[in-house]
């Protein structure tokens, strides 16, 4: 059984995101009150707020931690069309005594023309990279070539998803068998547009020489798959730990699981509904076997999902 | 998202604390739970977002639809569609205000403290079992495994004792009941384990099987002891109101000697029944029981038993005991009369006691495979109409039916902790009883359960070390799980980091070693502990980082005029070669040491070498040349002519380079330094030419 302990978050408005750091000993919350708060867990398990500061001039939608190999670094994104990267500064000794720390802004990413709806750091084996997605459907990927200099970020790619994006998730797998992949979910409400979950993949094979115009796309980006079964807005996408199963959750109250077979065809392998019953019309046996944590799930059933084989985007 | 937790998650949604008394649902109704984890959350008003952590989960009330609208004067909100489908009547300012955040964890963690001893000691037994040499002879191997099983059980019992003591001394009533519940859970676990030991590990054959089952029953019905003590302790036992109860219970449990002993008291007190008593006593004395040794075969025993049974029958039919209902009922029990036995339901309290008593008096040579029929019918007879088996009943029944997988499955569902099933399954696997039952998971059940159990341990600040050994003994996925879990251990102290590192290094987990060292180095660097940062990056074999830190050291030196962390730099040894900059740092420090020890010519040589061999970065040359000044100004000539020429060349190289940048000319201090150097070099050259030109001895 579970026990829940409440934390008095003290935000003055709705909280939109909570995020654990890598070790689960720090936490960040962000809110429509335009601020981010950082919490530390003490030895006896209590959570204390060690920093609280205004980060944007609009609602802050998401906050996320970088891997501790890069230090204590946060990224946030907001309705004010920007995303920002923050670093914790080791404070003066009297601050430490009071249990407070300071965060300074290292960079602001202003390329988006609309509300930035999600920001996520890439897996550490890719270096210091992050991706943002915006309400106008553009996913941007940035890299900091010098990991010790958090103020220099360059825009590496812009992916146009053609749909309002609500969430992104990096495939965490560091295996050489797969190129880096990123999944994007959409909260586009128009009934005609169907492909609410898309997966993009880097392909380094077509690396071109840098032309004088710079050329944002050094790598080719393929759309590997798109899924159109969520007949509703998609709010979250998330990969399992081996990067073989993608879960997406939507406004229709369902969680869908997606997996590729050995020919790289992606299909929906399960649908979970809020009360535990499988969705009517799908063959159900495989649902709990296609467990989110499983590394070797066999493709149980191909359901009414359509799959997109590799397409050039 | 830490999906290693998901296996736990799917299991978690099942059940309540396992209790002997109330039934619990035994089908995983997965994602809903009737007891709300989040108190006061109203699905009509807010939605929940969540985040996995290594040991806990975060839940937060929020609204997903609030993407378009904006509050209080922020730039206009035409971005994105208006919020729909989020079920909130009228957003805007009427929407729920500040959200609540919840930290959620499994409550087994609370019990982890109290069960700590159990985890620690069973860990020792587990590791011992994996590592011990397998005995060749089947019988010896069997004995070995039985011993292991007994060890596990004694650990459970010890834990039960502790918990019992804790319950007694608990002042808080809630705490008291918590402990009491734990005691009953542990008691149930021991009961189940004991039965599994008899049926599966020892695999007692017909004959000894019954004896073992009798022991099992005797061990676990404790209420009897109190009653017995009371009666025996009284002045006049045979007059005690519970006297016959105690006699009955002795008979039901096959404790003939004790029953006879009590009966003798009755006979003394009641001489009229002496005759009856003598006969009954004789029957009880003569009752054939299976023997443990090889003194008789089953057939022999059956024959004897048949004769004895007939004799009892005759006495009963002759009405020998007609005048004493107690004795008559005992005789009926001896004859295996089910109704007579059932009359003593309250004394037996459980259907499995009833089962064993039945077997004792109607089929003492029962074979293991026959148990299932007797078990099912016993349960039906005992429970009667309210035949609503509870989880414990289901588990025991599965055991009597020799459905191993069923036993494990039922236990997994009923118990909120993986400890029991993980260790039991591992033991049964060593008994070679589990077919390699390939799960979709890709490995077998034993490994699955051990992985789940060990994963749970990693959320504890010190028990995680036990988890490491469990992962080590999972051949398929143990290593991967360990790699993923060990990275997430919070490295609060250096000691802990070193402990974790040792574990990784022992297992050649190079990437984890590198990552942990990098994290520690970064932390040290942020806190300006350069020495610590440097030693961590050396351990990580991270050349780039070592270079960076060396640069910081050098920069500090330039600013302050002295080195921090001298011990470290002095004792770099071969790790100096990790990066050029680091090598330079080490050598430069050596130069200072030589100078301090007044070993000037060696120092001079080193200094020169640093520049000519290009170990020193160009930015540092000025400093090095400045360091050469005191050597040039010494009374004694230190630099040879050749060396002096070299130095001059270096100086010219330096100024030539600087001239390009044109910054140099504006800097008076720099100009003056260069002038001084030129002068010193020239003077030295003059002196050394004279010295070298002079003949020896003159």
From TrEMBL, chain A:
PROSITE patterns: WD_REPEATS_2, WD_REPEATS_REGION. PANTHER family: NUCLEAR PORE COMPLEX PROTEIN SEC13 / SEH1 FAMILY MEMBER, NUCLEOPORIN SEH1. It comes from the Eukaryota. The keyword Transport applies. WD repeats lie at residues 8-40, 227-259. SUPFAM superfamilies: WD40 repeat-like. It holds the Pfam family WD40. One of its GO terms (molecular function) is structural molecule activity. Component of the Nup107-160 subcomplex of the nuclear pore complex (NPC). The Nup107-160 subcomplex is required for the assembly of a functional NPC. The Nup107-160 subcomplex is also required for normal kinetochore microtubule attachment, mitotic progression and chromosome segregation. This subunit plays a role in recruitment of the Nup107-160 subcomplex to the kinetochore. This is SEH1 like nucleoporin. The keyword Protein transport applies. InterPro entries: Sec13/Seh1_fam, WD40/YVTN_repeat-like_dom_sf, WD40_PAC1, WD40_repeat_dom_sf, WD40_rpt. GO terms for biological process: chromosome segregation; protein transport. Keywords: Chromosome partition, Kinetochore, Lysosome, mRNA transport, Nuclear pore complex, Nucleus, Protein transport, Repeat, Translocation, Transport, WD repeat. SMART domains: WD40 (SM00320).
From TrEMBL, chain B:
GO terms for biological process: mRNA transport; protein transport. It holds the Pfam family Nucleopor_Nup85. One of its GO terms (cellular component) is nuclear membrane. It comes from the Eukaryota. Residues 71-93 are annotated as: Disordered. Its main location: nucleus. It is found in: Nucleus, Nuclear pore complex. InterPro entries: Nucleoporin_Nup85 (IPR011502). Keywords: Membrane, mRNA transport, Nuclear pore complex, Nucleus, Protein transport, Translocation, Transport. Functions as a component of the nuclear pore complex (NPC). Belongs to the nucleoporin Nup85 family. Component of the nuclear pore complex (NPC). This is Nuclear pore complex protein Nup85. It comes from Gallus gallus (Chicken).
């Amino acid at each position: 059984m579970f026990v829940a302990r409440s934390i008095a978050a003290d935000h003055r408005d709705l909280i939109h995101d909570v995020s654990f750091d890598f070790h689960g000993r720090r936490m960040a919350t962000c809110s429509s009150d335009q601020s981010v708060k950082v919490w530390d867990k003490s030895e006896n398990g209590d959570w204390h707020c060690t920093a609280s500061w205004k980060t944007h001039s609009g609602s802050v939608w998401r906050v996320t931690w970088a891997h501790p190999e890069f230090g204590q670094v946060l990224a946030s994104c907001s309705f004010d069309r920007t995303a920002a990267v923050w670093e914790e500064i080791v404070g003066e000794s009297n601050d430490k005594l009071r249990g407070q720390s300071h965060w300074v802004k290292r960079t602001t990413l202003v390329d988006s023309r609309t509300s930035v709806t999600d920001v996520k750091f890439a897996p550490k084996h890719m270096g210091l990279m992050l991706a943002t997605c915006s309400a106008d459907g553009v996913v941007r990927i940035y890299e900091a070539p010098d990991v010790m200099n958090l103020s220099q970020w360059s825009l590496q790619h812009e992916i146009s998803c053609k749909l309002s994006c609500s969430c992104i998730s990096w495939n965490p797998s560091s295996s050489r068998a797969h190129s880096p992949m990123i999944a994007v979910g959409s909260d586009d409400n128009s009934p005609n547009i169907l492909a609410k979950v898309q997966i993009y993949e880097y392909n380094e094979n077509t690396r071109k020489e840098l032309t004088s115009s710079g050329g944002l796309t050094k790598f080719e980006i393929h759309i590997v798959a798109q899924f159109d079964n969520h007949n509703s807005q998609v709010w979250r996408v998330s990969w399992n730990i081996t990067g073989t199963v993608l879960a997406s959750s939507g406004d229709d109250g369902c969680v869908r699981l997606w997996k590729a077979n050995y020919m790289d065809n992606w299909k929906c392998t399960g649908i979970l509904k809020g009360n535990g019953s499988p969705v009517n019309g799908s063959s159900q046996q495989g649902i709990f076997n296609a467990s989110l944590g499983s590394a070797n799930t066999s493709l149980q059933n191909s359901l009414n999902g359509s799959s997109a084989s590799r397409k050039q985007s | 998202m830490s999906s290693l937790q998901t296996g736990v998650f799917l299991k978690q949604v099942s059940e309540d604390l396992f209790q002997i008394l109330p039934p619990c649902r035994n089908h995983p109704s997965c994602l809903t739970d009737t007891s709300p984890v989040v108190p006061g959350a109203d699905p009509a008003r807010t939605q929940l977002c969540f985040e996995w952590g290594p040991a806990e989960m975060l839940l937060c009330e929020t609204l997903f639809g609030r993407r378009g609208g904006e509050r209080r004067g922020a730039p206009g909100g035409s971005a994105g569609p208006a919020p729909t489908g989020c079920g909130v009547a009228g957003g805007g300012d009427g929407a729920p205000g500040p959200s609540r955040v919840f930290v959620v964890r499994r409550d087994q963690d609370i019990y982890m403290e109290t069960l700590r001893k159990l985890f620690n000691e069973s860990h020792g037994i587990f590791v011992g079992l994996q590592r011990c040499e397998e005995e060749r002879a089947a019988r010896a191997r069997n004995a070995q495994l039985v011993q292991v099983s007994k060890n596990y059980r004694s650990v459970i019992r010890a834990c039960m004792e502790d918990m019992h003591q804790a319950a007694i001394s608990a002042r808080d009533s809630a705490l008291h009941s918590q402990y009491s519940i734990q005691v009953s859970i542990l008691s149930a676990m021991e009961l189940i384990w004991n039965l599994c030991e008899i049926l599966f590990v020892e695999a007692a054959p017909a004959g000894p099987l019954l004896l073992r089952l009798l022991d099992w029953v005797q061990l676990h019905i404790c209420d009897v002891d109190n009653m017995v003590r009371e009666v025996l302790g009284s002045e006049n036992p045979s007059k005690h109101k519970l006297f016959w109860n105690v006699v009955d219970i002795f008979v039901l449990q096959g404790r003939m000697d004790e029953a006879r002993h009590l009966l003798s008291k009755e006979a003394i007190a009641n001489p009229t029944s002496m005759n009856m008593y003598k006969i009954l006593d004789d029957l009880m004395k003569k009752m054939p029981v299976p023997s443990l040794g090889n003194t008789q075969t089953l057939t022999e025993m059956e024959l004897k038993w048949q004769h004895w049974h007939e004799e009892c029958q005759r006495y009963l039919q002759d009405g020998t005991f007609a005048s004493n209902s107690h004795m008559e009922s005992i005789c009926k029990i001896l004859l295996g009369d089910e109704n007579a036995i059932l009359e003593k339901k309250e004394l037996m309290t459980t259907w499995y006691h009833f089962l064993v008593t039945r077997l004792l008096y109607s089929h003492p040579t029962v074979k293991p495979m026959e148990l299932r029929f007797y078990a099912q019918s016993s349960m039906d007879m005992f429970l009667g109409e309210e035949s609503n088996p509870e989880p414990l009943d289901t588990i025991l029944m599965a055991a009597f039916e020799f459905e191993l997988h069923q036993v494990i499955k039922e236990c997994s569902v009923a118990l909120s902790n993986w400890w029991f099933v993980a260790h039991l399954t591992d033991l049964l696997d060593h008994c070679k009883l589990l077919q390699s039952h390939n799960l979709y998971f890709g490995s077998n059940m034993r490994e699955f359960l051990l992985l789940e159990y060990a994963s749970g341990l990693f959320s504890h600040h010190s028990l995680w070390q036990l988890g490491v050994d469990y992962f080590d003994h999972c051949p398929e996925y143990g290593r991967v799980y360990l790699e993923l879990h060990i990275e997430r251990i919070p490295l609060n102290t250096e000691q802990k980091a070193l402990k974790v590192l040792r574990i990784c290094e022992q297992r050649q987990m190079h990437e984890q070693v590198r990552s942990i060292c990098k994290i520690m180095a970064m932390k040290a660097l942020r806190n300006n502990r350069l020495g610590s940062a440097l030693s961590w990056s050396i351990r990580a074999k991270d050349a780039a980082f070592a270079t960076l830190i060396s640069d910081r050291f050098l920069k500090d030196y330039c600013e302050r005029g002295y080195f921090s962390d001298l011990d470290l730099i002095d004792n770099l040894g071969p790790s100096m070669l990790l990066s050029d900059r680091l090598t330079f740092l080490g050598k430069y420090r050596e130069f200072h040491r030589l100078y301090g020890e007044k070993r000037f010519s060696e120092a001079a040589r080193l200094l020169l070498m640093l520049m000519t061999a290009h170990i020193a970065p160009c930015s540092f040359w000025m400093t090095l040349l400045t360091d050469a000044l005191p050597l040039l100004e010494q009374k004694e000539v230190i630099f040879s002519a050749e060396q002096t020429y070299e130095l001059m060349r270096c100086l010219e190289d330096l100024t030539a380079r600087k001239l390009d940048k044109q910054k140099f000319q504006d800097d008076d201090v720099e100009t003056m330094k260069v002038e001084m150097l030129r002068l010193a070099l020239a003077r030295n050259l003059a002196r050394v030419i004279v010295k070298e030109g002079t003949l020896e001895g003159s």
